TrEMBL record:
Residues 11-322 form the Enoyl reductase (ER) domain. It comes from the Bacteria. The keyword Oxidoreductase applies. GO terms for molecular function: mRNA 3'-UTR AU-rich region binding; NADPH binding; quinone reductase (NADPH) activity; zinc ion binding. The lineage of its organism: Bacteria, Pseudomonadati, Pseudomonadota, Betaproteobacteria, Burkholderiales. Keywords: NADP, Oxidoreductase. Pfam families: ADH_N, ADH_zinc_N. This is Quinone oxidoreductase. It comes from Noviherbaspirillum pedocola. The keyword Oxidoreductase applies. GO terms for cellular component: cytosol. NCBIfam families: PRK10754.1.
Length: 324
């Protein structure tokens, strides 16, 4: 038997159950992975609360890193003994060992440890597609990135700096402001003490920014639109404060023919070649030292509920992991 976190109902952190599970052998297209670390992300909260529905009972968690123990028929891109990392469906990463689809697995370079691998796949590949594909930023651009001291945000600060991009980051405390600056943010706005729309206009000389990356949702959506320059792009990739309420398309027209998109990582890496290239870009940035993955919170697997409490209270910075 192996230990894992399961949910049989939706709700608060208390629905996360630490249980014994039978892992079994991988079937066609599957692999069994012994996990050394499991990533924690806000998307896990969405599944736990039911915002993202799934059939229950179910596992939870979208990313991890470990060693392949066995593969099923048809799996050729990984083999037993390979060090791997992944971010992908179905949920179930909060586990000591799991049988899962082999498709999301990529080989982890020897110079990247398991904790880093588990902490960076979802967040790091998210930054890659946001900055390089959803709206390709270029040197000299000034952009707005909300939650700049979070796991995705700290990676984005570093990646933007490496590309010569001026990132304006929003944060919720002075401590988080210092953290974002230390990781490469050109400007930092504490949204609890400053009006971020006014500050963005001040920083850009009234022009606004060509792109806003917003994982906050309800609380920042309208203000984010107001920060954009004409023909700017609103990238809404999360809803930590709640879903964006319905709005009129006229809101985009009246602000200067704006674009809006609601991307997900899993669409961007659905093709194997896209997954491989996205992961390689991330691995290269980390191996080069241009992006350092900050694993600032570590929890035992059995303490997943406390990890979620801290995450939702915005007590965490950088990345958080569970250790089986």
């Amino acid at each position: 038997m192996s230990k894992a976190i399961r949910i049989s109902r939706t709700g608060g952190p208390e629905v996360l159950e630490y249980v014994d599970v039978e892992v079994g052998e991988p079937g066609p297209g599957q692999a069994r992975v012994k996990q050394h670390a499991c990533g924690i992300n806000y998307i896990d909260v969405y599944f736990r609360t039911g915002l993202y529905p799934q059939q229950l009972p179910a596992g939870i968690g979208m990313e991890g890193a470990g060693v392949v123990e066995a593969v099923g028929e048809g799996v050729t891109h990984v083999k037993p003994g390979d060090r791997v990392a992944y971010a992908g469906h179905p949920p179930g990463a909060y586990a000591e060992s799991r049988v899962m689809p082999a498709a999301p697995l990529v080989k982890l370079p020897d110079d990247i440890d398991f904790e880093t691998g588990a902490a960076m796949m979802l967040q790091g590949m998210t930054v890659q597609y946001l900055l390089r594909r959803t709206h390709e930023v270029k040197a000299g651009d000034t952009i707005l990135f909300h939650a700049a001291a979070g796991g995705v945000g700290l990676i984005a600060c570093q990646w933007a700096r490496a590309l010569g991009v001026n990132l304006i980051g929003t944060v919720g405390s002075d401590d988080k402001a210092e953290l974002a600056k230390a990781h490469g943010a050109a400007h930092v706005i504490n949204y609890k003490t400053e009006n971020f729309v006014e500050r963005v206009k001040e920083i850009t000389g009234g022009k606004g920014v060509p792109v806003v990356y917003d994982s906050i949702g309800k609380d920042t959506f309208t203000g984010s639109l107001d920060c954009l320059s004409p023909l700017g792009t609103m990238v809404s990739f999360g809803s930590a404060s709640g879903p964006v309420p319905p709005f009129s398309l006229q809101e985009l027209a009246s602000r200067g023919s704006l674009f809006i998109t609601r991307p997900t990582l899993f669409t961007y890496v659905a093709k194997r070649e896209d997954l491989e290239s996205t992961a390689k870009d991330l691995f290269d940035m980390v191996s080069s030292g241009k992006v350092k993955i900050e694993v600032n919170q570590r929890y035992a697997l059995k303490d997943a509920a406390q990890a979620h409490i801290d995450l939702e209270a915005r007590k965490t910075t950088g990345s958080s992991i569970l250790l089986p």
